[in-house]
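RECORD TYPE: inverse folding
INPUT: C-alpha cells
STRUCTURE:
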C-alpha cells in the first residue's frame, strides 16, 4: 500500500494510540518513578512512533528496515516495562494486557512490513562502495592472470 504520509500507516496509528495510553497510565505512577520507569516508558513509546516515521521517510530499503527494527525493539522494551509496572502495582492487569497486546500487534505489523521490504527489494550496495569493490575485484583478477 502506498501512503502519502507516515500518519496514514495503520502501524503508526496503533503506536500513536499506545503512546497516548502510556502517557495517561504513567501520570498516576509515584513521583519516585518520574525519572525512571515513567521516563523509560515514555521514551520507548516515542521511539516506536519516531522510528516508524523515520523509516517511512527513508529511501533505501535497508534504511527503512533498520528503523522499523529499532521501533520493534522499543515495543519489546514497553512490554517488559508494562510487566514491571503491573508487578509493582502501578497498573492493573487489564491495563498491562492492553499495552502488551497492543504492542504485540504493532510488532506483528512491523514484522510484516520488514519481511515485505526485505523480500521484494534487493539491498543495493552504496554506489561508491560498490564501485570500489568492483575495481578491487577487477584489479585482483588482472593481477592473477
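DESIGNED SEQUENCE:
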Amino acid at each position: 500500500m502506498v501512503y502519502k504520509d507516515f500518519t496514514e500507516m495503520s502501524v503508526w496509528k496503533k503506536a500513536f494510540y499506545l503512546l497516548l495510553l502510556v502517557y495517561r497510565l504513567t501520570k498516576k505512577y509515584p513521583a519516585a518513578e518520574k525519572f525512571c520507569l515513567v521516563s523509560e516508558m515514555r521514551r520507548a513509546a516515542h521511539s516506536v512512533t519516531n522510528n516508524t516515521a523515520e523509516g517511512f521517510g527513508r529511501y533505501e530499503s535497508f534504511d527503512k528496515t533498520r528503523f522499523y527494527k529499532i521501533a520493534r525493539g522499543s515495543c519489546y522494551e514497553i512490554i517488559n516495562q508494562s510487566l514491571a509496572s503491573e508487578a509493582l502495582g502501578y497498573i492493573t492487569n487489564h491495563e498491562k494486557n492492553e499495552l502488551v497486546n497492543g504492542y504485540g500487534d504493532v510488532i506483528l505489523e512491523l514484522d510484516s512490513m520488514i519481511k515485505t521490504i526485505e523480500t521484494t527489494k534487493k539491498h543495493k550496495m552504496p554506489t561508491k562502495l560498490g564501485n570500489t569493490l568492483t575495481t578491487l575485484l577487477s584489479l585482483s583478477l588482472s593481477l592473477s592472470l
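NOTES: The chain has a mean pLDDT of 89.
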